[in-house]
Amino acid sequence: MYARIRDLREDKELTQKQIGQLLNMSQTGYNQYETGKNDIPTKILIELANFYNTSTDYLLGLTNEIKPYPRIK
């Protein structure tokens, strides 16, 4: 799971600091998610899935399908 959020960030050529700002947290706090030192709270997981236009299942490693599910309206 942790490698996926790092890979998605790097694919967009963003820094940990930029993603931390997006999530209203410090670079250090976000780094703890990417390295697996802290579990990612559900709220943050959803925000990352929305930002990267993928599913939480993809971020969690439950599927290799990066395309998100249809959204509930």
Describe it for me?
This protein is mainly α and 73 residues long. The mean pLDDT is 94. It has one domain: 434 Repressor (Amino-terminal Domain). The protein has helices at 2-11, 16-22, 27-34, 42-51, 56-60. It starts with a helix and ends in a 13-residue tail after the last helix. The radius of gyration is 12 Å and the shape is globular. The chain contains 5 helices and no strands.
Name the features:
73 residues; mainly alpha; 434 Repressor (Amino-terminal Domain); 5 helices; 55% helix
Q: Look up the CATH topology.
A: 434 Repressor (Amino-terminal Domain)
Percent range for β-strand residues:
under 5%
Overall pLDDT: 94
Low confidence ranges: none
* Main sheet properties: none
The termini sit apart by 27 Å
The outline comes out as globular
The CATH architecture name reads: Orthogonal Bundle
CATH superfamily: lambda repressor-like DNA-binding domains
Strand/helix succession: HHHHH
Number of domains as seen in the coordinates: 1
